[in-house]
């Protein structure tokens, strides 16, 4: 399996998923309870009652105002994780306290910090299109029964669109066109670009943009290890002018495809996805189409990765892969994840000294 | 997991479950075949044919008079476990013999002895209300995907009624009222009492007794480790006279709630339950109501304990619980179980010397 | 579990199962892709893409002429396992090659060689009735969730027909009649014979042959370890003349029941079955009856062996069986399998030196 990277921010939920119902998510193996207080603040704490370890996200556990009441014996907790009531006695044991998690709500994601030290000034990477008046967004989450490294591999090498997503977002040119890869090791970012000058327009873009002929199609990936993946997708009719020197680009359609990649357990992953567009902003039909279409694409990935994980589970130790040019980005991502995971372990060691 | 306690009687079935159909039950990990002979005697023997280990409780295995015929190759056994017929030859190997189990039918339970020595004079603890003309009984069995220790914990601490069984048997007073606990270490019995002088009457008792106002409600638990749990429940309108000095108690309603707690495997448990009442003896509607209602309550426990077991399965070794006053009885039960389990092991060792 | 025997031919499929759809089968733990080329030749190769181990038998992987295109990133392979195309570049890495498996199509079975050396002159054992104009055949395959040794045991001891297959092929005489067993250790063949001179005719034979009274019924088993089992079944009315000296036998009905026993994983087995008859060759109703009836019998075995495997999974190490005369053939088969398995390991060792 791909090692977990601790001391990082992870997407625990889309903002709209966190509300006045108790939500349980397991992030890097840690069971986390999420809910929103009456004044709208997202909070995160351990999803296990201190008494007998009952999951606080499971019914009949419930919210009482901003407090969580365990559904088994009624241990009750405030938003700071402190226990405020136990059955049969007035005295609350001092150690009756749930671990809380630092939470940041940013770009319509609820991020939690998983680590052994405090985040300090560290902030999650940005995906501003997801919470911008200049974009319209569709989004969802699909769980994967597989190592999160399989999803990183998948997204870093979009040549698979041609085969796994043919008829949706794949065309022959995606697999045929070579990529360029840049790695910012220090920042932990991998950039992979594929610029197709004259390509078939797949249904995903033909139906949403209305373009009828061939297109120039740019795929510019930014992977912020470990948990955020951005695909800047630029679509324009062949022959249309390129971007202006000032960065404006009025002759093209832009879609920002964003993935929050969150390891849940060693063999399960949350695949948070969002598609933001800068055109047809008010067109519900386009929104419906993109939601349905991208969800189908994500589910094609989910099915393939579940199949792949099962296949890998039967491999003997030391089985071999064969990597080629298209894997440059994925391999760079694996190296960065391995380094970050090792650093996380060292930080734990340092904190213990 | 909670250690198994050997050299003890366990409920293997309600008496009505054992008949002329072959019944398989696994008790403390041992597969046991149960059936009733033509003259009505319950017998128990190993549920594995000596030949190729086929389960004798599985079809097409069948009874032929009082003999069991294996459904695979026809090895046939008498009630003493001895093989009386094999295919293709007249000679029966001398070692062709199933292990039999001591059986006692008592209080409408079929008890089996699981141990390395004979029970001698040891008898199962009593629950006489279950087979008494002065009581009417409803009963059932629900399997739990969890360690039997979780069910012991659950039943020893009834404060959970308020939260898990609200609307059925729980009211605020159960969780609020302190308990008194007594432990008879030598006999292996834990007593937990909670006397509520002025409490809301939950639907379970309101509908069955017809009481309309508030009640005095006594819960007197007797846990006979490892496998029998008795809850003496006394319900009376507030202000009604208490029991007489001679033990009679004509102004109250009495319900005896009995649980046979039988470990099946390390992670599965049989939850045999029965509810005996000393009122409305002929009223089928009350019987139907109590059966339905108590089964719902038991299933609420089953769901919660299955959830809890799954949560505990993901905990790291050495995870912590926090215990308070209400847990006094449960902790005492755990101590007795640990002692009995250790004694069982010592007895095995002694027997081997 | 029963040890795998390497350096042997195994039935991987009925011939009709291998066509222009990609078929995945796991044989002795090795994932194998099977398909037929455009000119009709069956080929077998590793079912894992060299790139990221995606199963080539899983959609959207597909055939393009005689080439296999991986459904994940489009790695494309010829029938010799060599990779002929990868995405994003012209150069094919030299090591991009799938392991291929020797294949022989014989007697309407597709056999694959599982081993560490080449088969050389070794050929699979024969079952010529399955592909003969003098016979009509019905066939199928049922997977078993059990060790293949359980299926060998099952088929070597037909006394179980009386109990497990009563009402189909079992009658009391099968279990009652002693067997004779011969073992050709060198060739790895076990012969078990049971000749019933005057027996009830079970529905399987009564309905297919039209015989109305009692029969002589011969069961002559030839087990070619590890993977082919033949049951020569001879049925004739009681009193009919026996076979002629020249081997012809015009007064009897002959049914050749053939099993390909193929270990899939340590706990799963393919049960390939076929029933060939030398009578009523054109009678579709008899074919339908025999297909339905034999499939039911096979499924009775499957259910029993699945139950048995689950029971064995809970046994402690060193549990005991008890064997009698009817087990002579099965025990001989186990000895031969153990010897062949050990030889397979030695051959691996020898090859490595």
Key phrases:
homotrimer, 353 residues, alpha+beta, seven-stranded antiparallel beta sheet, disordered C terminus
Task: Produce a short descriptive summary.
The structure is a homotrimer of 353-residue chains. Chain A has 353 residues and is α+β, with helices and mostly antiparallel strands.
Verbal overview:
Three copies of one chain form a homotrimer. Chain A is α+β, with helices and mostly antiparallel strands and 353 residues long. Helix content of chain A is 23%, strand content 32%. Chain A is built from six helices and 17 strands. In chain A, helix 1 (148-156) runs antiparallel to helix 6. The radius of gyration of chain A is 22 Å and the shape is globular. Chains in contact: A-B, A-C, B-C. The interface between B and C is medium-sized, with 26 and 28 residues.
Largest interface: A-B, 26 and 28 residues
Question: What can be said about the biggest beta sheet of chain A?
Answer: 7 strands, antiparallel
Strand proportion of chain A, as a percent range, falls in 25-35%
Distance between the termini of chain A: 28 Å
Based on secondary structure, the structural category of chain A is alpha+beta
Low-confidence runs of chain A? 348-353
Give the count of helical stretches of chain A: 6
Oligomer: homotrimer
SSE inventory with pairings:
Three copies of one chain form a homotrimer.
Chain A: E1 8-14, E2 23-27, E3 30-36, E4 42-46, E5 62-64, E6 67-69, E7 76-77, E8 83-85, E9 103-106, E10 109-114, E11 136-144, H1 148-156, H2 160-164, H3 172-176, E12 180-184, E13 189-199, H4 203-209, E14 215-224, E15 228-237, E16 253-265, E17 268-277, H5 284-313, H6 328-352
Antiparallel strand pairs in A: 1-10, 2-3, 3-4, 5-6, 6-7, 7-8, 9-10, 11-17, 12-13, 13-14, 14-15, 15-16, 16-17
Helix pairs in contact in A: 1-6
